[in-house]
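FAQ: What does a multi-protein file look like?

Like this. Sequence, then C-alpha cells, then the next protein.
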Amino acid sequence: MPDLSLDADSVARTVALLRRRIDERFPDSGLGRVCRELDRITGQTRERAAWIATPILGLRVGVGALLAVIAAGLAGTVLSLHRPNQPLEVFQFVQLLESGINDVVLVGAGAFFLLTLETRVKRRRALAAIRELRAIAHIIDMHQLTKDPEWIVTPGRESALLPDRALTRFELSRYLDYCSEMLSITGKIAALYIQDFDDDVALSAVNEVENLTTGLSRKIWQKLMIVYAMGPESP
C-alpha cells in the first residue's frame, strides 16, 4: 500500500522553494520575510514532531516505578486487614465502605494522572507550536488585506496614508497566490504534529488552524477571481 502520511522533508522543500519564488518576484518584501519565518518554523516542526512521536523513556520508567510503589502499598494494606471479631453494625459498615471508596477514587485519580503525564507533556509542546502557526496565518492575512483588485480597475488618488499600490495585475495575482500557498502550507505543517500523536485536544487545535487557513484562503481566492475576470493585461 502507498504511504499516505505527510513527509516533513517534502513540506520543508516546498516551503524553501516558495521562499525562493517570493524573493525572486518580490525582493526585500514583507511577504518574503514572513515566508522565511515560515521556513524556520518548518525546520523546527520536523524536530518537534519527531520528539512528540518518540516515547519519553525516562518519564515512563519513573511513572512505572511510582505505580509499582502504589500497587505494593495497596497490596500491603489489603494483606494487613483482619477479620473483625464481632459483626459490624450498619453504621460502621457504611463508614468503612465510604472510606474504602474514597481511597480507591484517590488511588485511581493518582494512577490516571501518572499514566497521562507523558501525553500532557507532549500536548503542551504541540499546542504551543500550533499557536505559533495560528499567529503566522493571521500575519499572512494582514499582508494581503491591502491588496485590493479594485485599485487596479479604478485607481484613486495616492495618499501618504495609503500603502503602496504599485503592483500590476499580474504581480497582484502572484502576490495573492503566494499568500494562498503559504496559508495552505501552514495547515499542512500543523497536521505534522498529530500524524504520530493520537490526542483529541491536539487534533482539535490542528483542525482549528486548518479551518482558519481555509477560510483565509477563500477570501484571497475571491480577490483572485476578480483579477482573473479582468481578462488579459494590456501590454
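And here is the next protein:
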Amino acid sequence: MKNINILSKLHKVFFATVIFLFTFVISCSDLEENPPSLLVPDNFFSSATDVEAGVSAAFSKYHAAIVTPQTFLTQMGSDDLTTHKASNKQPFREFDGFNASAGNVWMANRKWDPLWKAILAANATINGWQNIVDTDEVIETEVKPVAAMAYFIRALTYFDLVRIWGDLPLITGETTGKETRNSVQEVYDLIYQDLAFAEAYLPNEWTDGSTIGKPSKMAAKALLARVALTNAGWPLKDNSKFQLAADKAKEVMDSGNFSLEPNFSDLWVEQNGNLNEGIFVIRMCDPCANVPGAWAAGAKTNFYKVGFAAAENGGGFEDILVEINFFNDFPAGPRKDATYYDNVNGTPWQDLASGRPLIAKYGPNLGSIWDNTNQDVYISRYADILLIYAEASNKASGNPSTGAYDAINEVRARAELAPIVGLSSEEFHKAVIAERGWEFTAEYIHRWFDLIRNEMVEEVSENRNPDEVGFGNVITKDKYIAPIPIADITLNPNLTQNPGY
C-alpha cells in the first residue's frame, strides 16, 4: 500500500469522497481506495443501507491494518515474539531491539496509514448519518444501530493508535493537514464517548445472521472493559478505572452469551469466529460472498500467514519467530501444543534453520510460501473477559475474590493446569499477567500492551536472549511508544516527534 502521508494530505482528497463511498455501496470490495474526507454531501446518507456502506469502508480499512505479519511490527518488543536476525527483516529488528526509526516504512504503510484511513471512513459515517431525515422510529430502530458500528470502529482504531503512538491528533471534523497532537487523556475521552454510543445502540445480536464479524452490545462492553483496564495502568494510572473494567467484564460474563471452547485447538480452525468464545472477530474469507459478517464481500480478505512459515516449509519468510525462553517457560499441556508447531513436515523444531518452534495460531496446515488462511482474527474473546475480570476485580478491591479465582481458574482448567489458591493480591496479579501471556501468545496486540500498562517491559526483557537480534539497548519509557512516521512530520511539523526518536 502506498504511503500517502495520511495526516498531511487529508485536505487533498476531499474530491474522492463520494466516489469512494459509492464504490462501497456497489461492491464493498476495494481495500485500496483513498479514504473519504469528512466533506460528504449532506444528502449522501439517506438510509441505514448508506450508513452500512460507510461502516463497511471503515471496517475494511481496519482489516488492512491487521491482515499481514507486518502489522505485528510495533509489538515486537514483547517477550513472546522475535524475528530473523538476517535478510530483509530490519523493520522487525528495529522494534525487536528497541531501536525503531521514524523512517520505518512497514510501520507507516502497514499500521499508521490504514488505521488513519479507518478513522476517516468512520468519521464520514458518524457525521453523515445525523443528516438522515426519517421518522423517529426508523432513526432509533434502523439507523442508530448501524451507525453505532462506526462509533465502535473509531473507538477501536483510536485505541490502537493511542497505545502505539501516544498523543494524537483528534480528527472528528474537517481536516486541514496542519493538525497538532492532543493528549492521551483527550484521546481516551473520545474513545469513552464513542463506546457509550456503541453500547447504547448496538444490538445484542444482528438479525441477519451476521453477528460474527459485526460488533454487538457485548462487544462494546468488552472493548470498554479493556480500555478501562488499560487506563488503570501506564501512562494514565487511573486506579478508579479498575472497577469500571471489572463491572463491564462482569456484564459480559453475566450475559450468558459466551463460554470457553472446551478444546483450545478448536479456536484456530479456519473461520472459527462463530464459536462460543468469539466476542468480536475480523472475518477472514476467500471468497467472501455469502460469508455472514464479512466486510468485503467478493474480496480476497484472508490472513497472510507466510510470515509465520519456516523456510523448510515451502519457503516461508520467518518474519515472526518464537522467543525461545518464553517457549521454554510456557507450561506444558494442550494450550502449548495448540500454540506452537513442534515440527514441520516431520522435522523437529530444533533442526529447523531458525532453531525454534513455529507459531501455530496463524498457520493451520502450513503449506507453500504464498498460502493464506481464512482463519478469523480475534479482537475480543471470552478468555480475555475472564482474565480482565480476575485482574481488575482484584486490583479494585485489594484482594482476589472467589469470583476472581473462579475466572482465572476456568482459563487454567482448559489448559489442564492446576487451580491457583491462597495468593496475596500482588501474587494474584502476577499470576493473571502470566496467564494472559500464555493464553494470548502471538495474538493481535495483547502481550505487548499488557507489559506496557504494567510497566514490565524492562523486567521481562531480562529473560530475553540478547544474541537473537542484537538485543541489548537500554529500555526507557520512551520506547513504550513508537515514533511518528517521519514523512508525515516532514509535511506537517505540527505533529512533532515522540521523545527519544
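Q: Is there any per-entry metadata?
A: Some entries carry free-text notes. For the entry above: The two ends are 25 Å apart (CA to CA).
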